[in-house]
Amino acid sequence: xxxxxxxxxxxKATPLPQKVRARLLHGRxxxxxxxxxxxxxxxxxxxxxxxxxxPMPFSSLSINxxxxxxxxxxxxxxxxxxxxxxxxxxxxxxxxxxxxxDESENSDDKATIDRIKAAKVRKxxxxxxxxxxxxxxxxxxxxxxxxKPEEFELSLKLTFRLVTAKDQLILPETxxxxxxxxxxxxxxxxxxxxxxxxxxxxxxxSMVARILRRITAPDITQRWDTLAKLAPEDEEEEETVARxxxxxxxxxxxxxxxxxxxxxxxxxxE
Length: 270
Description:
Blueprint: H1 2-13, H2 18-45, E1 60-63, H3 70-82, E2 87-88, H4 110-124, E3 127-143, E4 149-164, E5 169-183, H5 189-215, H6 218-228, H7 232-235
Parallel strand pairs: 1-2, 1-3
Antiparallel strand pairs: 3-4, 4-5
Helix pairs in contact: 3-5
């Protein structure tokens, strides 16, 4: 028994010859390379694309979601990373000169300045990503024995579209929604509001990724190429859409978190 143990230990401790080690290493490298190729083929077959490899077909884009909102900033950052050759045209970068005003217009009027900047953006941007509607809400989905909220449902909904500078539809109205559930305890309302804010941020990040996947999909490129090849007489037959309101610098209510403590209901004395 002892001699067998010693011989086995010695065999394990004996180093392999250099040629054998080289062959084993070469075989392992070849096998790993083969597995990597198979994985890449499988991913490409199911439509997977790594982030940063989905440039948009147009060279310039405007977005009417406010830059000073977290959602607007995240969306712009993601677009720049995914399609670095697509320039984002922003109203704040537009220069308004005296010759841009009509004789009857006040050059100090902010609304007039914003209108002129919006017109310049529409002229420079080949495509426009337009937010049409938004909704950010909370809803009580469960109550305890005392009739107090026990669980909230947080929802985020956004409708958008993609159009050309000529108001032709590249992507029709598309609505995305996200829902999260959150247990609630009225003894720690402040902490729960912080938790709700974190969940809304998570939904916003998810929404950014979903919008990005949609506007970089192959059918968007196909639609853009089709519109670019239209003859002037065919363009007149192409459906156009009404323009949306120019973006504002104020953060809309959607990107502000709703309160988890609703206002008290007024009870009639009758």
